[in-house]
Specification:
By secondary structure, the protein is an all-alpha fold. It has 7 helices and no strands. The chain has one domain. The chain starts with 5 loop residues before the first helix and ends with a helix.
């Protein structure tokens, strides 16, 4: 079995983190919304289970479609580049050289670097410089789908457990707190993977989670009084 590259592994980890994050947030919104409308524990639990199952299928299929589309686009770019190299090699050579020059490399050094890279593998070089990805490093859509299919229900367990285990007079508040802590963790993890600002990512994740739970709870309360 061919070993995955670092980029491929990171993409699968990304799918796992985002799947867990969506599982936490989606199911928390459902169970808290239903808890706002009714105190019936079975109704709350079964709605959470239904949301978990629907979300798992939706996330897995969404990842599969998204990554498959990206993979198709990359293959089309490779085929287009093969045609360009066969019909206008000098033009592709000049495009790579000009990119190096635009990056601040001296013209003489840029020409030499282009000659070395193009002579080694012109397709790999031009695809990397023009499209920003490496040939034969496609993300596996099935791996991303499976990662989401596992991580979404795993994330869903937290709000389901919190809403089901705590006493009825505390379950909404304790679920709210547990979900906020979990979203801070997934927000931090997503920031590490994407090399983004960690505090901003956590804050954004927490705020979106709080808004989701507050809005669904209020809607549930309104419906419950009808």
């Amino acid at each position: 079995m061919k070993q995955q590259t670092l980029a491929q592994r990171i993409n699968v980890i990304r799918a796992s983190v985002m799947g867990a994050n969506d599982g936490i947030l989606s199911v928390a919104g459902i169970v808290i919304g239903v808890a706002g409308a009714t105190t019936n524990s079975f109704a709350i639990f079964i709605s959470g289970i239904a949301g978990m199952i629907a979300g798992t299928v939706s996330m897995a299929m969404g990842e599969w479609v998204s990554v498959s589309t990206e993979k198709d686009s990359q293959r089309n770019a490779i085929n287009s580049q093969k045609h360009a190299l066969a019909n206008n090699y000098q033009g592709e050579f000049d495009a790579v050289k000009q990119k190096y020059i635009a990056d601040g490399i001296d013209t003489t050094l840029a020409t030499k670097a282009t000659q070395e890279m193009m002579s080694r593998d012109s397709l790999v070089t031009t695809v990397r410089e023009k499209y920003g990805f490496n040939v034969n490093e496609f993300t596996n859509p099935y791996a991303a789908a499976i990662a989401s299919m596992i991580s979404f229900p795993t994330g869903s367990i937290l709000p389901l457990a919190a809403i089901g285990l705590f006493p009825s007079h505390l379950r909404v508040e304790m679920t709210f707190i547990a979900v906020i802590i979990a979203l801070a963790i997934t927000g931090y993890s997503a920031a590490v993977l994407s090399k983004a600002n960690r505090n901003r990512s956590m804050l954004r994740n927490i705020i979106s989670g709080m808004l989701t739970m507050v809005i669904t709870y209020l809607i549930g309360k309104i419906i419950g009084t009808l």
